Structure formats: C-alpha cells, structure tokens
UniProtKB/TrEMBL annotation:
<feature type="region of interest" description="Disordered">
    <location>
        <begin position="1"/>
        <end position="24"/>
    </location>
</feature>
<keyword id="KW-0732">Signal</keyword>
<dbReference type="GO" id="GO:0009279">
    <property type="term" value="C:cell outer membrane"/>
</dbReference>
<comment type="function">
    <text>Involved in the assembly of lipopolysaccharide (LPS) at the surface of the outer membrane.</text>
</comment>
<dbReference type="InterPro" id="IPR050218">
    <property type="entry name" value="LptD"/>
</dbReference>
<dbReference type="InterPro" id="IPR007543">
    <property type="entry name" value="LptD_C"/>
</dbReference>
<comment type="subunit">
    <text>Component of the lipopolysaccharide transport and assembly complex.</text>
</comment>
<comment type="similarity">
    <text>Belongs to the LptD family.</text>
</comment>
<dbReference type="Pfam" id="PF04453">
    <property type="entry name" value="LptD"/>
</dbReference>
<dbReference type="GO" id="GO:1990351">
    <property type="term" value="C:transporter complex"/>
</dbReference>
<feature type="domain" description="LptD C-terminal">
    <location>
        <begin position="369"/>
        <end position="737"/>
    </location>
</feature>
<keyword id="KW-0998">Cell outer membrane</keyword>
<protein>
    <recommendedName>
        <fullName>LPS-assembly protein LptD</fullName>
    </recommendedName>
</protein>
<dbReference type="GO" id="GO:0015920">
    <property type="term" value="P:lipopolysaccharide transport"/>
</dbReference>
<keyword id="KW-0472">Membrane</keyword>
<dbReference type="InterPro" id="IPR020889">
    <property type="entry name" value="LipoPS_assembly_LptD"/>
</dbReference>
<dbReference type="GO" id="GO:0043165">
    <property type="term" value="P:Gram-negative-bacterium-type cell outer membrane assembly"/>
</dbReference>
Length: 810
C-alpha cells in the first residue's frame, strides 16, 4: 500500500475521480474533509490550499473517544486477559504490529490507517476498509472493515480481526458488534491468545457497561496446541464450560457447567469453579494429593491458599482419611523488610501406641491430641547483625512417620544471634533436641543455652606477616535427668604462611588455650570416658605445628597434573583430658578431612596431645572434560604411652591407619567419590564409602555405599560400625514420561554390630514411581514401602497420586 492511500476520504458516489479531484481542486478537498470530520469526528489540524491534500494523506488521522473505538473494539483488547476458545488449535492472522509513528498524547484520540475510508451522507454511515489498523494507548486493532451507522448507533468490525492490548494478549474473531454507547459489545467466534501462552476460545463473547466479560460455550488451556512439527494437537488439559464470566476488577474467571479434560478425555466435572487470572498470589485451591496406606487408609489432601497480601500468605490443608480421623495442616509465610519466616503446623485427634518393641504393637483405644510444629526464619537486622532460628516439636515419637511427614529420628530446635564483620564474629546460640528414637530417653537429651562464641582476627603484618586469632567461648548444657556441664575458654592462635624460593608453602602455627569446666550429676552418664570429674576443673592446652606443601605442576596426558607432597609435625604437651567431661568430641574418627588438622577431635572437649608426624600426597590431573583429584596420608606418633583415642578410630597405635580420597569428574555426566581407610597392619578396609552419580539432568543414577568395619567398642554408641547401600535413578523414557525409584538397604549384620537384628540384607525403605510432565501438567504415581515398625507407624506400602495443572494450583 502506497503512502498516498493513508487516510484518504472518498464519498460513496464518487469513487474513481476522487484522487485526482483531491489533488486538483483544493475547495472540493476542504468540503470533503469537513464532511468527513462531521461523520467520524476527525480531530486533525485545520489546513487550507494545497496543504490540505497532504494533511489527509499523512499516516494516522486522529479520532475522538466518542467516535469509533473507546470501549467498543478496544474493550475487547482491554478485557482479553485470560480468555478461552471454541477451537484452540486455530491459527489466527498476525496481530497488528506497534505503530511506526508517534501516538497521540491525548488519551481521547486514536490513530488509524486503512486502504480506503468512505462516508455515505444519505445513510449517515462511515466505512473504513482495507487492512484497517487502529492504535490507542498501546492497544492495537487490525480488521478488514469497520462500519459505523450513526443513525442506529451500531459499530461493526469484521474480517480477520486481531486486537492486542499493552500486555501482549491478542483477541481474534470474525466480527465485533458494538452498541451506541460504545461500552457494550459482542464478538463472534472469539479466540484470545495470552502473552503467557494460554488460549481462550468461545462461540460468542459480550462485555457489559461494568467491564464484565461473558462468553458462551468456551474452552481454556495454557498448554501448547501444536506439536514440534507445528501441527495441531490436543492440549494436555483444558477446561470446557457452558459459560465463562471474567471480572477484570477482581481478576477472577468463573465457570458454569465446567469439565476438566486430560489428554482429550473428560474427567472431572466442576459445576461451579473459579480461578484467578494474572493476579499473582491470588487465593484459591491448590493441587490435591491422593494417598493410600494400610494404617490410615485412603487419604485426600486438598490445600487452599489464602493471599493475605503481596508479602504474606496462609495455606490450609485438610487431610481426610478413611481409617483415621481427619488432620488439619496449616502454613503461614511472610516476607518482611529485613527477612522472612514460616510456620507449619499439623493437628489431629487419634489413637497411638507407645509399644516400640513388638513387631505388631497394639494401639491404645483412647484418643489423644497429636501434632507437629515446624518453624524457621531469618532476619538481617543490618549489614552485620542477623537473627535466625528454627523449631521442630512433635507430640509423640511416631506421629511424623505414621502420617508420612518426615523420617527424621531427632528434631533440633535452634536460635542464633550473629554479628559478622571483616575481622570479627560473635555468635550467641541456643539449641535443644527432641529424640524420636525408641531406645533413647528424652531426659538425657542436651539443652544448650547459651553457647557464645567470639572470634577476632588481628595483627596482620606483625611478626613477619603472620595473623593472630582470638577466640572466647562459653557453653552451658543442661539435661532434665542427666549430667549438666558448663564450659568457658579463651584461646589465641598465630598463623604464619611463607613461600620459599623453591616453591614450598610453609605454614607455622602456634596455639594456646585455657579452659574452665564445671559439671555435676556425672553418674547419669553411662559411658565413663565421657563423664569427667565432678565440680570445677581447669585445663591448659598448648600446641605448635609446622606444615609444608610442595606443589609440582607440569603437563601430562594432554592436560595439566599437580603432585603435592605434604608433611606436618605437631607437638603438644601431655593434657589431662579425662578430667574434663566430653560433650562435643565423641564422634572421633580418622578421615582424609582431619588428617592434617591441628586437633583431630571434633569439638573442644578433647585435644590430641603428644608429638606426631603426618605425611601425605595430593594428586590432581586436569584434562578437557575430565578431572581426577586424589589424596592419601598417614601419621606417626612419637609417644608410646596409651592414648585417649578409642580403639577402632585408626589412631590408637603410634602408626595410624592409611586414609585417602579419590574424586573423578567427567564433564557433567559422571561424578565419582571414594573415601577409604586401610588398616596399617594388613591393609584391610576399615572404612569404604562410595558416592557416584552418572547421567544427564533427565536420566541419571546415583549409588551410595558405606561400610564401617573398625571393631569399635560396643559401648561407644557414637562410633558403631554399620553397612548400608543407597541407590536411586530416574530414566526419561520419552519426551514427557519418566520412571524413578530409590532404595535404602541395611547391610549390617551381627558381626559388625552386635546390637543389630538385621541379617545382612534388610531393606529400610524403597520408592518406585512413574511421572508425566510437560509444559503445563505434571501427573505422577508413587509406590513407597517402609520396612520398619515403630509403635503405630507400621511397616507397609503406601501409594501417592499427584496431579498439578499450570495456572490451577501449580
């Protein structure tokens, strides 16, 4: 279309000669222009002479709000935020592109272009035809023809209609009919394509004076309606309804006579149904979950989401069972200006069993309240100060397992206040533990309040560039029916790191600490080595260490390899460890991670004394796509006197066991980690730990294996030997279908752990499932089996059905 065609006005009785007459007769042009202004409300600038002709041909004449479009054609664009369609697979015409010229600044004006504009003075009818394009405040219309009958007040747009609003949603139709007020209208054979991918189709749609949209015999889907070859396909799910009403003020879509169809099959009738449209965190139902197990029977969980504001919400989930009383679950979440927190709670009234020994325990006939609270939060008060905390409390030891909430056997509660800057850190911490293990007494569980730790780094540049670190620490542990301990210490550490001319990295460390302990009721601790002496006790600790690394780097196998011999000597005087209670250093074991540590005990209550040499080798090879990292080491203690380290830890004798680790990574496809400990006398494997992951993001397998064969004293419950295997996998069978599974197997036998009742192959639990997931639907079925019985949390199978639909609770 040439530039001369933009904005031309021709009377119905003078089609052919108009163009020439407009150019040759300025008077006729002015008269025709006046008639057109009276007919369709042109608000163009006044022009005379030859200038009038050029003004009419300019791109985009201005039309007043009352003229053609305000809430007639454009109301459809303004209301096409979620709409639905009669034929969702229709391929509509291209929507109108944005205007190439500046739009009018007056909101009462629109810009238009067309091949032809006609005015019938006898019928008082204005007709714009031929690739009609209208623009106003970001709204765009394309149609073949627009007709306005000024006598009847009817405005009609027809032919390949496409209306786009500022948000990018586009409405298509065959014909739009408007009333005289231009606020009420209807569209036939409507299809709306939302910017976010949803589609709404209907036979006919109307809009009333309040902006409420109503469509008849409609269908909606957010799913793709074409396949990878751009051919039409049935969407994964859609909603069909006799009538759909959209209220833009409330941003809510309501259905009457609706039915949800999955893969083309009608499944779930919804006589009255509604959901939010483009409202973000709007209130409504979330995806339900259906589950079955032998204890509770069939379970249906139907969560409802309440949007209390842009930064806070509540989700209430009733759980209904066929073989148990209902349970109510609630979760509150809030985001504040400096942090966030959430609180989750469960509550029910049911029977329970306190028989944790019998494989078929009897359940009490008396009903009691049962529940669980899980809360967590963190607040950053300023750039340095923060407060965080977590709380987990259950009414009894089997509630979490019976209702499949969690398999944890200990619940930790914590509150922490921290201040961190560049050179210092202050932490005030408190924690308590609730045990769910049948063999443990709650009265023996520790409550630490408070635990205070302060650290300060200073003196950089002093003493040849070394650095000091000061630490002040205090801890108070209490038990309802057990040993109580209070501890305070102050320590000073100095580290000096140097690089020699030969490339060796040498680190000199000096450490000194003074401790003060107070303890009582030590007889309540069954393990004598953990008790210490009752009353106040003091202890002085000192140690000095020299650590040398010598990295050697060069080319190998087309890549780069690094070989790093390492040697360390640590000297410490004899320390009276057994006078001090042991609260935090019980789980000691020689590993690759603590081989070169200044103190190989965890925590502070035990410190390794005497003089020892530690030697090892680090190796790394880096090739394109492949990396191999490994280390191995051993230590030798000069003092031959008995050590405080328990038998089986690998450090009891003067010469320690051999420990190491190997890590292999191949692109993003394979990760393999092997940690081991070998007996120094016969190279028997005392620790064998393997973790491997192989595969892609969609198809992968994980394998984990752990065997601790250390011959540890049976009385040391924190160091018991065990053996277990863990496997898991997910296989993507097709583009949308996948199968998954996992299992945990206890391989411990009586030889490894005399207290174990397992026969060397005892499944703990396993899970197997199949899942379908595409861009707008997730459907899965999972089978889970638990092989352990504790009270009323019995062994058996459970089945879970999950369904999540995009835009509907997902």
């Amino acid at each position: 279309m040439s530039d001369d065609a933009w904005g031309q006005i021709r009377p119905a009785a003078a089609r052919s000669p108009v163009e020439g007459q407009l150019r040759s007769d300025p008077g006729l042009v002015q008269r025709l222009r006046s008639e057109a202004q009276g007919a369709i409300g042109l608000a163009g600038k006044r022009a005379t002479g030859a200038g009038a002709g050029s003004a009419l041909k300019g791109y985009g004449s201005d039309v007043t709000r009352k003229a053609l479009l305000l809430a007639g054609i454009l109301p459809i664009a303004l209301c096409c935020v979620p709409a639905y369609a009669q034929d969702l697979q229709d391929r509509p015409v291209e929507p109108p592109p944005p205007s190439e010229t500046a739009l009018p600044t007056d909101p009462d004006q629109i810009q238009f272009s067309a091949d032809l504009a006609e005015y019938d003075s006898d019928g008082d009818i204005v007709t714009i035809s031929g690739d009609v394009r209208l623009f106003r405040e970001g709204n765009r219309l394309r149609a073949d023809k627009v007709v306005w009958n000024r006598k009847t007040g009817q405005v009609l747009a027809s032919g390949n209609i496409a209306v786009t609003n500022p948000e990018g949603d586009t409405a298509y139709g065959d014909q739009i009919e408007l009333t005289d007020s231009l606020k009420d209208g209807a569209i036939d054979n409507m299809l709306v394509v939302l910017e976010q991918g949803g589609r709404l189709a209907a036979e006919r749609g109307t809009r009333d004076a309040n902006g409420v949209i109503s469509v008849d015999r409609a269908a909606y889907t957010p799913c793709a309606v074409v396949d990878s070859n751009n051919c039409p396909k049935e969407p994964s799910w859609k909603i069909t309804a006799v009538r759909v009403v959209y209220d833009p003020a409330r941003k809510r879509m309501r259905y009457k006579g609706a039915r949800v169809s999955l893969f083309g099959f009608a499944t779930l009738p919804l006589p009255v149904f509604s959901h939010s449209v483009g409202a973000g965190n709007a209130s409504g139902l979330l995806a339900p979950a259906i589950r079955y197990d032998a204890v509770n029977g069939f379970e249906v969980a139907l969560p409802y989401y309440f949007a209390l504001g842009p930064n806070r919400d509540v989700t209430v989930t009733p759980h209904v069972f066929t073989d148990a009383l209902p349970m109510l679950q609630g979760e509150y979440r809030q985001l504040t200006g400096n942090g966030a927190f959430r609180v989750t709670g469960y509550a029910t009234y049911s029977r329970r069993s306190d028989d944790f020994v019998s494989p078929t325990p009897s359940v009490s006939s008396e009903y009691a309240f049962r529940g669980y609270i899980d809360a967590a939060g963190r607040f950053q008060l300023d750039p340095n100060w923060s407060v965080s905390g977590s709380m987990r409390i259950a009414s009894d030891r089997t509630f979490l397992r019976r209702y499949d909430i969690s398999s944890d056997d200990r619940l930790r509660n914590n509150i922490r206040i921290e201040r961190i800057d560049r050179n210092s850190m202050l932490s005030i911490n408190g924690w308590a533990v609730q045990t769910l293990r049948p063999t443990e007494s709650q009265g023996l569980q520790p409550i630490a309040l408070p635990e205070i730790d302060y650290r300060l780094r200073f003196g950089q540049g002093l003493l040849e560039g070394g650095r000091f670190e000061l630490q002040l620490n205090s801890l108070a542990i209490g038990r309802a029916s057990g040993q109580d301990t209070q501890r305070a210490f102050a320590s000073l550490r100095y580290d000096l790191r140097k690089l020699t001319a030969w490339g060796q990295e040498i680190t000199l460390t000096a450490y000194g600490r003074g401790d003060l302990y107070n303890t009582d009721e030590i007889a309540a601790t069954s393990q004598v080595s953990y008790r210490g002496l009752e009353g106040f006790r003091g202890r002085a600790i000192g140690a000095i260490a020299l650590d040398m690394k010598w990295p050697l780097i060069g080319e190998a196998f087309g890549g780069v390899q690094r070989i790093t011999p390492r040697f360390q000597v640590v000297a410490a005087p004899r320390i009276e460890n057994f006078d001090i209670p042991n609260e935090d250093a019980r789980s000691v074991d020689l590993e690759d991670s603590n081989l070169f540590a200044l103190n190989r005990f965890p925590g502070y209550d035990r410190f390794e004394d005497s003089t020892r040499f530690t030697f090892g080798l680090d190796y790394a090879l880096y090739l394109p796509g492949l990396s191999i990292e490994a280390n191995i080491g051993q230590s030798y203690r000069l003092d031959s006197r008995p050590t405080i380290l328990p038998d089986g830890t690998g450090m009891t004798d003067r010469l320690s066991d051999i420990v190491g680790r190997t890590v292999v990574r191949y692109k993003g496809f394979l990760t393999f980690t092997h940690r081991y400990r070998l007996d120094k006398d016969n190279i028997a494997i005392r620790r064998n730990e393997i973790d491997a992951t192989i595969g892609s993001r969609d198809t992968f397998a994980t394998i984990g294996y752990l065997r601790l064969n250390r011959n540890v004293d049976f009385a040391l419950e924190d160091l018991q030997d065990r053996e277990e295997a863990r496997v898991g996998a997910r296989v993507k069978v097709t583009r949308f279908w996948s199968v998954f599974g996992s299992a945990v197997i206890d391989l411990t036998n009586a030889e490894e752990d005399p207290a174990s009742l397992a026969d060397g192959f005892e499944p703990v639990r396993h899970r197997l499932g199949i899942e379908y997931e595409d861009d707008c639907l997730r459907l899965g079925v999972t089978w889970k089996r638990d092989y352990q019985t504790t009270g009323d949390a019995r062994r058996g199978s459970s089945y879970l059905l999950t369904l999540a639909l995009k835009n509907l609770g997902r």
